[in-house]
Design a protein that fits this description.
This protein is mainly β. The protein has no helices and 7 strands.
Length: 104
């Protein structure tokens, strides 16, 4: 599992290499919900996906992205708010076979 460094900002976009995959991730807070976009090797994997704590952000497998993204609440089980990003809420990447907190 890798923690991805994010900022406590209502909108951000950044590049990160995950398991050798060149990715661009954007996070956007709209009202009380956070949404995520993911591009991998210049292929859009998903756009506007609602971020819910305890579930993978990329809920559907894609041949163009290996692994899983998940937001974890270090103080409970609430969905993320930008003010607590990288402090209370952390974004993590896990390879396809890694177990994450909340997996069955």
């Amino acid at each position: 599992m890798i923690q991805i460094n994010i900022s406590a900002l209502p909108w951000q976009e950044f590049s990160v290499v995950l398991d050798g995959q060149n990715c661009v991730i954007s996070l956007r807070q709209v009202a009380e919900h956070m949404y995520c976009n993911l591009t991998c090797e210049e292929v859009e994997i998903f756009k506007g996906r609602k971020v819910c704590v305890g579930t993978d952000i990329n809920t559907y497998p894609s041949p163009n992205f290996k692994g899983r993204l998940r937001m974890i609440d270090t103080l409970g089980n609430s969905d993320p708010q930008y003010e607590g990003l990288n402090d209370r809420w952390i974004l993590v990447y896990a390879s396809e076979n890694e177990v994450l907190n909340g997996d069955q």
